[in-house]
TrEMBL record:
<feature type="transmembrane region" description="Helical">
    <location>
        <begin position="60"/>
        <end position="85"/>
    </location>
</feature>
<dbReference type="InterPro" id="IPR018723">
    <property type="entry name" value="DUF2254_membrane"/>
</dbReference>
<protein>
    <submittedName>
        <fullName>Putative membrane protein</fullName>
    </submittedName>
</protein>
<keyword id="KW-1133">Transmembrane helix</keyword>
<keyword id="KW-0472">Membrane</keyword>
<dbReference type="Pfam" id="PF10011">
    <property type="entry name" value="DUF2254"/>
</dbReference>
<feature type="transmembrane region" description="Helical">
    <location>
        <begin position="137"/>
        <end position="158"/>
    </location>
</feature>
<feature type="transmembrane region" description="Helical">
    <location>
        <begin position="106"/>
        <end position="125"/>
    </location>
</feature>
<keyword id="KW-0812">Transmembrane</keyword>
Amino acid sequence: MKRTWLRLRQISQGFWFIPAVMTLLALVLAEAGISAEETYGVPDGLTFVYGGGETGSRSLLSAIAGSSIGVAGTVFSITIAALSYAAGSMGPRLLDNFTRDRGNQLTLGTFIATFAFALYTLRTVTGSEDQPFVPHYNVTFALVLAIVSVAMLVYYLAHVTGSINMTHVANLLRDDMRDALMRATLKEEPGQDLAVAPPPEFWAGGEVLHAPRSGYLQLTDNDLLLRRAEEADVALLLHVRPGDYVFPNSVIAVGVPRLPADVIDALTLGDRRTVGQDLEYSVRQLSEVAARALSPGVNDPVTAIDIIDRFGDALCSLQDRRWPDGVYHVDHVVRLVVPVTDFVGLAKSMFSMIRQYGKGSPSVMVRMLEVFSITASCLKDAERRAVIRWHAELVREDALANIENSADRADIEARYRELLDTLANGQAAEVLKAAEHTVQQTQGNRAN
């Protein structure tokens, strides 16, 4: 079922889907208007309905059809130009964000639907003396569509200009990344212990599943895998997670003592990575924008700094969230173990590429250390703060090795010391909190 919904979502997000639906709807409305006029005619009280004859209606419909398809070609050309700019400056993987944009789809669909409506209606206009026919309802509605098309053209010009703005793109990608993070993590609950996966020896000698073909793992139906493992009374270990490229004949699962039936049905492979369960894909889209901005041909450190700010935003939002352990039990028996993205992998995907490409840019390195300090003050978990410190040490090392100006090097050192102070204050606060908790427990025991 999840695979079906994934395919339906991919189809509905296609650039052609909304224009196709609007065109079909326009043809249905055109036929309905013609049938209504043939059956009931036009009441005298409807003064707003077009009242011209055959020649006027034919000219009007021809003008609407010709102009709408002409403007549709212009809109399509502008869209292609915007896509070319986006691919060149932000990366080809961002093209999906532009083709999925509902504003672009609705604009193109409006013009094509107007053309189809006017052309379909035009064929019914007859001027014979025996039985002349003018579809007054349809001509009136075609005029309304023409006015709507003009409004959509004005909207489109403003929309496409804003959609290729780098800040707008960064915010869209940030929202996608934040939604993916919220889906991938769970609300932190006090006193909750993480489940522990069986040791590697447990899986030794199990039945191995090899990949039947290659492709990116787009979706894993964990509910189906858990149900199949419980029905077969086995334990199942997956070696791949959404976003991984699966090579043909590579090991993707192990079952102990055997594999459950139809494991491959719960794994959806495709030719490209998709936003959804693949958390790191949303992160890598932003990282690629920053890496391209730091290339010598573009040399746009401001964009890279904007991306770093978005990453800090995302990490701070995880303060009260925990990562799933990937271990599923049924009646206290391990049935399924799946690999999951953790904080270490997330931070590496965010900052490693930017650090490697921006190590010679003082402004980028300084901002990374500043964001690390802010993030360290937001995060309370000691392991996560250790990850932040590790990345800060890498940034400091690369920056000092590639930046020669003494003032810039002093800025790097100052920001790094600020980070260390922030981390030290956080550790002191944790120690104080633990001591207070111990004192409260001791006083409670004495009272009892």
